[in-house]
Amino acid sequence: MSMRILLVEDETDLVSTLEYNLKREGYQTRSALTGSAALDLLAKDPLPDLVLLDLMLPDMSGLDICRQVRSDGRTKKLPVLMLTAKGEEIDRVVGFELGADDYVVKPFSVRELLLRIRALLRRAHPESGPREEDLCFGPLRVDLPGHRVWLDDRELRLTALEFKLLTTLMERRGRVQSREVLLSDVWGIEAEVTTRTVDTHVKRLREKLGQAGSYIETMRGIGYRFKSDPD
Question: Which one, of 225, 167, 182, lies nearest residue 159 by Cα?
């Protein structure tokens, strides 16, 4: 199952950037622009698997939110990663004393933030968090070494050829792949069979992927392309 992340941040541009990058990594997101909205979401099920928490919110301090998260039996074990423009040592110390698991100072590298999120989730959910070798895209998660594919929490049954076709398209997402290239790279042949073979397998793969089948786009007269963005 893809991990759920609650993003508590009042800068709308930053919210959009983080939502986009988190979804590309396979995470589900919910966002709150105020502390009170965040607490309302935390009072409902399902709980997020991690909270990205800005300290400077318009209605209350992120430190107060962290304190309430740690004092509530439902949420006290939730990983909390604080985002803040305050980089002084005393600010980090106070954050950690209140129960924050990690602390990132603005401006930050999105790539670094994603790595820190992955590390926290791996620590909190060692069996279910996305792993370094997993290929994630929206609700799809592919275990490359294990040759297994999940759509949300449901494992899909793909043949070896369908698995190779899917991973080839995913790894080249955003780039058009001609039928001839797919025949060569997936089937290992140089157009010795009709390119209709590709069409037939793509159709079967789409059917098995269900809602995620729309990620594979047909480029009329050329071939196929895996979307660059799950949205």
Answer: 167
Q: Domain extents for the chain?
A: 4-124, 134-226
Q: Which class in CATH covers the domain with range 4-124?
A: alpha beta
pLDDT score recorded for residue 130: 47
Bigger pLDDT: 230 vs 214 = 214
- Indicate if the pLDDT at residue 195 is higher than 80: no
Q: Comparing C-alpha atoms, which of 213, 168, 201 is closest to residue 186?
A: 168
Token pair, residue 150, equals 């999940």
Percent helix, strand, coil in the chain, to 5, is: 40, 20, 35
Tokens linked to 19: 């939502």
User: Quick check: helix, strand or coil at residue 123?
Assistant: helix
E strands, 66-170, in order: 80-84, 102-105, 134-137, 140-143, 148-151, 154-156
Between 19 and 197, name the one with better pLDDT.
19
Roughly what angle, to the nearest 10 degrees, separates helices 12-24 and 110-124? 60
- pLDDT over 50 (residue 203): yes
pTM of the model: 0.56
